[in-house]
DNA sequence: TCGGTTTTGTTCTCGCGTTCACAAGCGCCT
DNA sequence: AGGCGCTTGTGAACGCGAGAACAAAACCGA
């Protein structure tokens, strides 16, 4: 390993090129748009069409796709099925991802009942809750189990992704336990800042923040009109 | 109106400075961190402490706050209560925002039951659903009403913010109706691209996309380990 | 076989956001 | 009163992402 070849861009054929984070965030959108097109019977589409369906600029779409490789045909466009498979493979949704949900309250139940996960390669293998009163309750065809079963479940199903839907005060504890079990990706719905080891990915979904951002812009609209 | 003075930056004293979008997205996080500090009895904090609590870099925090004004004291730090009020005022959460939720299924019910909205200045004034079987059902103390009541409710309560929690196929129709009623901010949970007039703000929350992003990174971790 | 047409893949430029680093300012202690 | 230490606010450098623009490539029709 002379120099720092692994870090900088390398044209090596088998090595995965590293895809910009902004692009990674859009690939699932393209994937969904392609699925829709496919269901409508479209077999080929141009970057312009696909960009329209995905709600982005066509130049941006082409640049994003170019990070994956050259899967289009100049003068023709992209083969819908082929591109769909390539994106799915790149994201990793061709394989099946086992997921555990911790905190089966209002939100946890909604998540457990959501069919859109399974159809996109995610399989909820267990629902965990600290509240004993909830145990053995059946939600979405799965029994709610005690939080202490986490280790067992993670090891049995090789779970790598955990979802936190507990109150904010419990979130850090739950995250610590998840990390200790070997979970390396966490989707956090609790409004709290999690601290985890560097190799663990955390994504946060915070509904009140979204509303507050809307409120900010809303306020500016009305205040501008008032002046 | 000589030149395009209104569009470019203007140092006018009363005019609201325009705050970068990235900063706006972080202000609610600071707000929450300040609330927590306040509840713990802290009356003063440094940018370093607050940044730690919010999970960001302290330089970034200071720059973000500097867009609002100079609310800190050099050598001392920030007054927690004072800063909290200033941020709340800037975001607009000192006032009360009426909100309607459309689509009272799994997710809509969870949202309706969520107490975190009210405590942050948002008040759910109505729950709407197209399914007649759901009408008159009571969720979170509110009666589920027919979607056709939208106009009436929006005008009665001066609603500016709408939440869409319907299936994807219905989302565009719902959005169109909302816009027609005068709603100018939409939070969309359906996995679909909405097209709305320019002056309407749309924010999208897409849980499967979040999971797919995690899956992408997860895949890279394991594949890196395998090579 | 060859020009024309269409659409991709890529290069280049610009602007935004992040981070470093430091001067200015404030309080405290002597 | 004056110096000292601490913390803010900001100027400047840097890197990433967005978008325009174009050259390269593939198909089509004559
Ligand atoms: N409901 C929503 O629409 C909504 C919206 C935005 C954010 N959130 C956030 O999502 C989280 C869950 O919200 P909710 O409305 O479902 O709350 P909830 O109170 O209905 O459910 C929380 C569940 O977590 C369980 N729990 C508590 N501590 C636990 C622990 N240590 N280990 C395992 N389970 C534990 C509780 O028993 C309960 O069943 C909260 O942090 C909330 O702020 C919810
Ligand atoms: N449940 C989840 O955790 C989850 C997660 C991610 C995304 N989503 C998305 O959120 C949306 C709602 O999910 P859900 O699980 O609550 O679905 P759901 O089927 O349980 O509820 C949808 C509700 O919308 C109502 N509806 C349908 N068409 C309507 C219309 N035109 N006007 C008004 N109401 C209408 C239905 O009657 C139903 O009550 C979906 O788009 C889904 O993809 C849900």
UniProtKB/TrEMBL annotation, chains A, B:
Keywords: Cytoplasm, DNA-binding, NAD, Repressor, Transcription, Transcription regulation. Residues 92-193 form the CoA-binding domain. GO terms for molecular function: DNA binding; DNA-binding transcription factor activity. It comes from the Bacteria. GO terms for cellular component: cytoplasm. The keyword Transcription applies. Residues 29-68 bind DNA. Modulates transcription in response to changes in cellular NADH/NAD(+) redox state. NCBIfam families: PRK05472.1-3, PRK05472.2-1, PRK05472.2-2, PRK05472.2-3, PRK05472.2-4, PRK05472.2-5. This is Redox-sensing transcriptional repressor Rex. The lineage of its organism: Bacteria, Bacillati, Actinomycetota, Actinomycetes, Propionibacteriales. The gene is rex.
